[in-house]
# Entry
Amino acid sequence: MTRETHTSKTAHIQSTHRRHTLRGLGALLLGSGLISSPLSLLAQTTDRAVRFILPVGAGSGVDTIVRAAGAAMGKTLGHPVVIENQPGAGGIVGTSALVKSAPDGMTLSVVSNNHVVYPSVYKSLPFDPINDITPITILGSTPFVLVVNPTKVPATNVKELVALLKAKPDGYNYASSGNGTILHLAAEMFMEEAQVKVKHIPYKGVGPMVTDLIGGQVDLGVLSLPSVQAHLKSGALRAIGVGGSARTPAAPDIPTIAEQGLPNYNMEGWFAVVGPARLPAAEAQRIQAAVAAAYATPEVKEAMAKQGNIINPSSPEFAAQFFRTEMVKYARLVKKAGVELQ
# Structure
């Protein structure tokens, strides 16, 4: 027997031994109820990771929501989870990367309202927001909060802020995470309801926007509560009001903008798990169940509650219809706010 033949035979024996050992371990764990099927054990033994391409920067609301559940999703999905931030152009850069990926369930994303705002604010897009993705679940919602730099803006409530903005029409500016983003639109809605004009300073993501708000380069802006909660507690930023129809349990002392004299103002964020187009329905259902299970774990539930997020995972079918309905809704809002096409 040659050395090459002996080596090949030895490798075959070792491979066969590993397969039998894995099958035996699978049978043992299956009988104990620790796994639902031998396939789940096989999934958990692979090093191939599920990529979550986030079309937002680190520190944004969506980023904090996904990172809080990354480890739990790794367990329920049966693969390690790798989170990749690809911000830019209001989210178009990251989403473009997602839609080009293989529909095998190994590349996913979490998107927000921005995804269905795109068609109303951009003259052209490198992808179709409806037909180039597979909606998997509307995961939940998050509160928006209007904040100011406390050194630059002495206002502590909506009435005082509106008075300042009207007294100095060119004296203040507001930041957003980019032209045409939901944070831009949320701020424009406030300006319209308050009947004030404030200069818009767009940023390439939430992180730089928050940095400059704290530094005083910009005066105010609307952000998701999770992305600024620590800065509100430290006093680096001051909350003027939350954007939803009711106060959030995560910050019950912050009144709504509506209850402070602008009753028609109601804006909050939502976030959804999506995959590329042509993801098989069975795979979408499997991912939906795994994601829902991860966000139902005690540690993730606690993290979401502290951030003020409401988790209520939908079915893939509901998610698909929701995307279409929201696209129509924001088309009307963008037109009403007079946001220029980019």
Confidence is low (pLDDT under 50) at residues 2-46. The CA atoms of residues 241 and 257 lie 5 Å apart.
